[in-house]
Amino acid sequence: MGKIQQLFTKDNITIAQLEKLYKDKYGDTFKFKAKNMSLTIEKNAYHLTTIYLQKNADITFITFDEEDVSWWIKMLVKSFGLIGSLILGLIYGKADEFYEDVQSVIKANYSVEVEEVNVGLSAIGDMFKKKS
User: Fold this and answer.
1) The predicted structure's pLDDT at residue 11
2) Helix, strand, or coil here: 58?
């Protein structure tokens, strides 16, 4: 799978604060759904992400679930495979800009550090390297 970016901060962040920041910046452009420790931001059926806050001592880890898509999009992709994915990409556009916008709000308003973390098979390889 490779590397992902993990964001963390010593700032005190709550989901309510994040929701207000995003609503102030984007207004009715996006839909928001806040839960206890998560905030889902939806641009459209194809571009949505959920932000999770995990507090550990004095550090808050901020993670993004970018795998979320609406149920009917999942059904289309399963039914039509690669062709369906390509068609949906043409209709809705690339997701990178949306995810960068979502992360930029947090980076602009909090003192955030970014760390690259190996995941998947590369993480297993790193475990063996550390033992040597």
Assistant:
1) 94
2) coil
